[in-house]
Amino acid sequence: MKTKTLYILIGILVVLNIFSITTFWLGAFDKRHDRPLPPRGAPEEIIAAELGLSQGQMEQFRELRKEHQRSTEIIFKEIHGLKSGLFDEVFVNGDSSKRAEEIIKQISLKQEELERSTYKHFSKLASICRPDQREKLRMFLRDIGRHMIPGNIIQAPPPPPMK
After folding, report:
1. Alpha-carbon gap, residue 140 to 92, rounded angstroms
2. What are the residue ranges of helices labelled H in the chain?
3. For 66-78, what is the mean pLDDT?
4. Rounded to 5, what percent of the chain is helix, strand, coil?
5. Measured between alpha carbons, how far is residue 9 from residues 5, 20, 21 in Å?
6. DSSP assignments along 79-123, one per residue
7. 107, 86 in Cβ contact below 8 A?
8. 54-145 adopts what CATH topology?
9. To 5 degrees, how large is the angle CA 26–CA 35–CA 122?
10. Residue 52 — left, alpha, or beta (φ > 0 → left; ψ -120 to 50 → alpha)?
11. What is the pLDDT of residue 79?
12. Rounded to whole angstroms, how far apart are CA atoms 113 and 124?
């Protein structure tokens, strides 16, 4: 009788252990799943919905977006070409290449251009917004920035809900 009870108890513990390990591996205890998922859809639609843009503002925003996409597309292509050259350099001179250092500097300058373009884009977007929309945009950009951090290293509290 004691042996049978012992086997049943061991069986229950084994099942619980398997369940616990499986749950842990699948990330059920990961606190990040409590965060709301970012909205789905085209960025243009998401921003318009978040800010409550009027029809006139939407037309202006579409133009701003086209302008931004044109300028950043060129920069992205240039960065891509530079990175290809950088990786080719690995096989030419290894890790002691002066040319590689020059390419890295060029990439960083292009990245700076990209960041400046993005800043100007959102600055122009803010200029077409009403004061209440500007506050929503500020919170939206802060939230987007939080999602862009690898692994969400910063554990800042979420922004207050938008009204």
Report:
1. 45
2. 2-25, 43-51, 55-93, 98-127, 131-147
3. 93
4. 80, 0, 20
5. 6, 16, 18
6. HHHHHHHHHHHHHHHGGG-HHHHHHHHHHHHHHHHHHHHHHHHHH
7. yes
8. Four Helix Bundle (Hemerythrin (Met), subunit A) (1.20.120)
9. 130
10. left
11. 93
12. 16
State how far the Cα of 94 lies from the Cα of 87, in Å rounded to an integer: 10
What is the token pair recorded at 33?
Answer: 């799943």
- Side-chain-side CA neighbours of 124 within 13 Å: the count stands at 16
CA angle 103, 109, 111 (to 5 degrees): 105
Q: Is the pLDDT of residue 80 over 80?
A: yes
Tokens read off for 44: 């243009």
Sequence-distant (6+) residues with CB within 8 A of 5 are none
Give the type of residue at 3. T
Per-residue pLDDT tens digits for 3-25:
888 788 888 888 888 877 777 66
Give CA–CA dist 140/157, Å, rounded.
14
Are 51 and 140 spatial neighbours (Cβ–Cβ below 8 Å)?
yes
Residue 127 C-beta-side C-alpha neighbours within 13 Å: 8
Residue with tokens 């978040």: 50
pTM of the model: 0.62
